[in-house]
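Session log. Operator J.P. requested a structure for one protein chain; no other inputs attached. Running the standard single-chain path with token output.
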Amino acid sequence: MRLFRLIAVCLAFAAAPALAQPAVPKGVTKATSVEGITEYRLENGLKVLLFPDLSKPTITVNVTYLVGSRHENYGETGMAHLLEHLVFKGTPKNPDLDKQFNARGARSNGTTWLDRTNYYELFQATDDNLKWAIEMEADRMVNSFIRKSDLNTEFSVVRNEYEMGENSPFSVLLKRLQSVAYDWHSYGRSTIGNRSDIENVKEENLQAFYRRYYQPDNAVLLVGQVRRGQGARPHRRGLRQDRQAHPQASGRVDGRAHAGRRARVQDPPQGRPAARRGGLQGALGPARGQ
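Structure written below.
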């Protein structure tokens, strides 16, 4: 389950002739490939999407966790977004992420929405940068501090975002429309949460939320804008955690339990053929940033 070896092999796929393509590493399964984007599955449940691109001198590493504001309980709204802020506060191995991003000239950010939370880094395409970025994401997947001291400093930042939304006609309208459109579903709550919940969230609740959802079998790793041949040398370590990495992880996240509900709506007869609408229930809008 060595992710760097997987990336090296898959990038070689793009450059090698069809008859000379190397085998996929042991413990890795190729799921599908569409228009140059190939999906792989690791034994720990992690999905990996690789997207080689000759035209870019940079690499983007993006990790998306399949958890958002709709997974929050009553009285804990805004937790997914607040956790996004805290994950940038580092780990014992990487205590100052901002300093490390700046040292590598990387652009980084994170966003939270109804169904997902994502983190990304954009940096110069070198083996060392790619190795560091993936090991850093593996580290903060399970070892982020999530400390009370960081929580206290982030309160003012998140409250400021909340107040900006309250002063935005578009944000106010979207919040009202969501609450009307989804009476009982969690989509009816805004991602930023309620002010009282944000101000009174408990450290242990955030830690439990983090341990439950920040897991390899609940994440998708995208490595994109990679030059063909980049990372051709196999590395020994990668994103290979399992669920035991979190000491108090509470079982495997069942993707089916968190999948969007499908709805089929049929309008009443109106003297003409009825229109049928189908698809995933959801809300459209810009992700709320860090």
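Operator note: The longest strand covers residues 58-65.
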